[in-house]
Amino acid sequence: MSTALAEPVVPVRRGWTTAVVLANVGVFAAWLGPIQVLLAKQSEAVAPGNKEFVLGLVTGVGAAVSVVANPVFGAVSDRTTSRFGRRTPWVLAGSIGGAVGLLVLSGSQAVLWMLVGWCLVQLFGNALLAAVTAAVPDLVPKKQRGVVGGWVALAQTLGALVGVGLATVVGGVGGGYLACAAFLLISVVPYLLRSGDRPMVERTLLVWREFWKSFWISPRRHPDFGWAWLTRFLLNLGNGLGTLYLFFYLQDAVGYDDPDVGVLVLTAIYSLCVILTAVSSGAWSDRVGRRKIFVTGSGLVMAVAAVVLAVVPTWPGAIAGAIILGTGFGVYLSVDFALLTEVLPSARDRAKDLGVINIANSLPQVVAPALAAPIVKYAGGYPVLYALAAAVTLLGAVLVRQIKAVA
User: Fold this and answer.
1) Which helix (H) or strand (E) holds 236?
2) CA-to-CA distance for 79 and 204, rounded, in angstroms?
3) What are the structural domains of the chain?
4) The whole model's pTM is what?
5) Tens digits of per-residue pLDDT, 349-371?
6) Could you give the residue ranges of the DSSP H alpha helices within 34-110?
7) What was the pLDDT predicted at 180?
8) N or C, which end of the chain is more exposed by having fewer CB within 10 Å?
9) Residue 161: pLDDT above 60?
């Protein structure tokens, strides 16, 4: 067996974990800065009378690209035989391509160019994410994955904080995109210098029919993988329903005078709560050897946050919702990632299988706008939207108990 496929036994060092986290922060900043602030403001400038539709269209089409890109790039990286390793070339290519997409967005004054730019960001960002995510089961022993998963979980939160900060502090929509692009390129440098990526020695014969068939992972043959996918989809759908229109929620429902600053403040509060819970809960999960109870509990807490936003559409209510959601989401992100790495069907296809799992992250970004836009405009507004988010999240929290191979 190639050393690239062997189960890792040597604990990774802090410097390696820091490099992986920073690369993740870069790609999530490139995504969440635009999603939370820049795309909303750009949609309002391009189509002030139809801003919700434009934002939903751009994010929905981009998410559809993400659904395909993540598992495909993951499968390609599994088969990459570069002397620099399987993952490193795609981290580099993904960062460059993502930065190009952000540059396109920075000059976009029409919906078409917004679509082109955002699709590029999603396409290449997922190439980067698929590769750097697979580096964890490639190199981190199972007994260390809760802790490392906790730190990696912080990347999404810190990426949101950095992205929203750059989008808010740097002048103008175009400047915000340029700042996110620069940060994305800088963020991958430490990983490129110390990835520890192990080259694949043997070249796998590529049979296209088998390649495409490999993306279907039968839930009958791998039921734990199927339940892990479904529960992640539901929890991310609930989160997507709750956060997609946060800018407009503050503007139209709460009546907050400066909604982009409001988003930044809420993101900072949420991020602090995630930081306080993610690493500690991951380490706790490693010590007790249990995962599911943490994921179930975190889902229940996240559902409570959505209920608060539904029934208390005020600035104090939004702050309370951010605190509760951050507390639950920190536990969920760290422990659920460790759980997922323990139900992967094959060492040879780690990146592809994680890419299939990551469809459960990106597909909700397609479904959420399709559900949220008509609800906000025609079917009860934000109270109904957040009530639906709570119900979906609660269902995911309950169904995680169906996974049998992990305690």
Assistant:
1) helix 223-243
2) 6
3) 14-402 (1.20.1250.20)
4) 0.74
5) 777 888 888 788 777 877 887 88
6) 39-46, 51-78, 88-106
7) 96
8) N
9) yes
What's the chain's length in residues?
Answer: 407
Q: Do 342 and 351 contact (CB within 8 A), yes or no?
A: no
CA–CA–CA angle 111, 115, 116 (5° rounding): 120
Distance CA 257, CA 263 (A): 12
pLDDT digits (tens, 9 = 90+) for 177-219: 999 999 999 999 999 998 888 887 666 666 666 767 777 888 8
How far is 150 from 281, CA to CA, in rounded Å? 7
Distance from first CA to last CA of the chain, Å, rounded? 29
> Residue-wise over 205-230: b if at least 16 C-beta within 10 A, else e?
eeeeeeeeebbebeeeebebbbbbbb
* Per-residue pLDDT band at 10 (split at 50, 70, 90): confident
Q: Which of 184, 58, 196, 48 is nearest to 129 (CA)?
A: 184
- Distance set, CA 309 to CA 87, 242, 342, 348 (Å): 40, 9, 34, 43
Which residues fall within 8 angstroms of residue 341, CB to CB, at 6 or more apart? 136, 137, 142, 145, 149, 354
